[in-house]
From TrEMBL:
GO terms (BP aspect): SRP-dependent cotranslational protein targeting to membrane
KW Coiled coil (keyword) present: no
The keyword Lipoprotein appears for this protein: no
Catalytically driven reaction(s): GTP + H2O = GDP + phosphate + H(+)
Domain of life: Eukaryota
UniProt similarity note: Belongs to the GTP-binding SRP family. SRP54 subfamily.
Domain SRP54-type proteins GTP-binding, first and last residues per copy: 268-281
Lineage: Eukaryota, Viridiplantae, Chlorophyta, Mamiellophyceae, Mamiellales
Listed GO MF terms: 7S RNA binding; GTP binding; GTPase activity
Protein EC: 3.6.5.4
Gene Ontology CC: one annotated term: signal recognition particle, endoplasmic reticulum targeting
Residues included from the entire protein: 74 to 519 of 571
Keywords on record: GTP-binding, Hydrolase, Nucleotide-binding, Ribonucleoprotein, RNA-binding, Signal recognition particle
Descriptive protein name: signal-recognition-particle GTPase
Length: 446
């Protein structure tokens, strides 16, 4: 019964928390959506488990169903999981350390050679000069394919035909780039196989070593679906990839492979292939990928709007208070108590940008003067707190001040300091109120 009452109460207040019970059904939908998007099963399981741990206790936004709040939480989690710091771009070698070397790895037909060309074009647009290196000696057509791309893009291609070993061709390619001196980036195209095998991995390891590659990018066909997880694991374990390129996203796949690749390898997806043409290379956008994989975009944007509205309402309330400019000693006290709640003054100051320039001594001083202020205010009458002017501009001002100082066990100077501090704060409040008024007017809020 009490649980039911709690729930009824929560409903009346319009605020509930996510709980193990109310996330059960919507999580099933999420699970289904992820599987339909071809995220691999173990990845889905781990992800759902994480959400099950995280969700309970999360506040449900006013006007939003718990199930909708959960979907938004899931979308945020997905986005975080697939994004992360430094998620995109190539890590270039520092100037003077020779060309940056990028190795393309992956199974046959996934789009490695195409990605080499696309990347070269994209780098060229950033005013970087590239050298492409052809090491796919198993398919003569592959070397021609890269040479053709190079001549179309006007990017030099290094090759030794089909009779040398890939690690040595690659090393010679890097040496050539160094010799030329005008190459910023060497992109090494490699051979793929239909299946992961030891020969392929060993060759990649040797090539990576012979070139001292800075980036080893795993090229994954988005249509690989469920298989993407095991595939990624094999490559990541064997050659320690630095990132991935997800190709063929122009197809109608939901892109679950993106989540699998990221979750299994822990490495960012740096680019996406979105077509056969050379300019069809995009950066990876975690938000877009999230809505592609999860769907439910309408729910997510509904919850976002509701969250925005609640934030707005809070801000409006605050604005009203400030606009009224009825800031008195009670508010002053409340303010200080709020600071007290958040830990000591010095802790708080550390969080304020700019304020961290204050020395520990400064902060101790500030803390001390706030303590004094507090005890002075405590010994004011409610009337005096409400009408601070009574302490300066009335016939009884002096006797009031004497009483307060005595009651608090402080000095006249202490009280004078408080009155000055308070006056300064009040002026600041009024300035803020005026500023907010004009801001609001600009936004048409008034
Ligand atoms: P590799 O064997 O890994 O080098 O694969 P290729 O680069 O030769 O590409 C194999 C096929 O996939 C070619 O027909 C490419 O045009 C095509 N391809 C590569 N990337 C994309 C892409 O992002 N979208 C589409 N639709 N096709 C692609
Ligand atoms: Mg190829």
């Amino acid at each position: 019964l009490s649980a039911t009452l709690d729930e009824a109460w929560a409903k009346m207040k319009g605020v509930a928390d996510l709980s193990p019970e109310n996330i059960k059904a919507p999580l099933k939908d999420v699970r289904r959506a992820l599987l339909e998007a071809d995220v691999s099963l173990p990845v889905v399981r781990r992800f759902i488990k994480k959400v099950e741990e995280r969700a309970p206790g999360v506040k449900v936004t006013k006007g939003v169903e718990p199930s909708q709040e959960l979907v938004k939480l899931v979308a945020d989690e997905l986005c975080t999981l697939m994004g992360g710091v430094g998620a995109d771009g190539i890590n270039f070698r520092e100037e003077g350390n020779g060309p940056t070397v990028i190795l393309m790895a992956g199974l046959q037909g996934v789009g490695k050679t195409t990605a080499c060309g696309k990347l070269a074009l994209s780098l060229k647009k950033q005013n970087k000069t590239c050298l492409l290196v052809a090491t796919d000696v198993y398919r003569p057509a592959a070397i021609d394919q890269l040479k053709k791309l190079g001549s179309d893009l006007n990017v030099p291609v290094y090759d030794e035909g089909a009779n040398a070993s890939p690690p040595s061709i690659a090393a010679n390619g890097v040496a050539e780039a160094k010799k030329r001196g005008d190459i910023d980036v060497v992109i090494v195209d490699t051979a793929g196989r239909l299946n992961i095998d030891e020969a392929l991995m060993n060759e990649l390891i040797a090539t990576k070593m012979s070139t001292q590659a800075d980036e080893t990018l795993l090229v994954v066909d988005a249509m690989t679906g469920q298989e993407a997880a095991t595939l990624t694991k094999s490559f990541a374990d064997a050659i320690d990839i630095t990132g991935a390129i997800l190709t063929k996203l122009d197809g109608d796949t939901r892109g679950g492979a993106a989540l699998s690749v990221r979750e299994v390898s822990g490495k960012p997806i740096k680019f996406t292939g979105v077509g056969e043409k050379m300019d069809a290379l995009d950066p990876f956008y975690p938000e877009r990928m999230t809505s592609r994989i999860l769907g439910m975009g309408d729910v997510v944007s509904f919850v976002e709007k509701a969250q925005e509205a609640v934030k707005q309402a809070d801000a409006e309330q605050m604005k009203e208070k400030i606009m009224k400019a009825t800031f008195d000693f009670d508010d002053f006290l409340k303010n200080m108590d709020m600071m007290g709640d958040m830990g000591s003054m010095s802790q708080l100051m550390k969080m304020i940008p700019g304020a961290n320039k204050l020395s520990d001594k400064d902060m101790q001083e500030a803390e001390k003067s706030f303590k004094i202020a507090k005890s002075l205010i405590m010994s004011m009458t409610p009337e005096e707190r409400k009408y601070p002017d009574m302490l300066v501009a009335s016939s009884t001002a002096e006797s009031r001040r004497n009483r307060i100082v005595k009651g608090a066990g402080k000095t006249e100077e202490d009280l004078a300091e408080l009155i000055v501090m308070f006056g300064g704060m009040r002026v600041k409040m009024q300035q803020m109120s005026a500023a907010m008024g004009s801001e609001a007017a600009k936004l048409g809020l008034q």
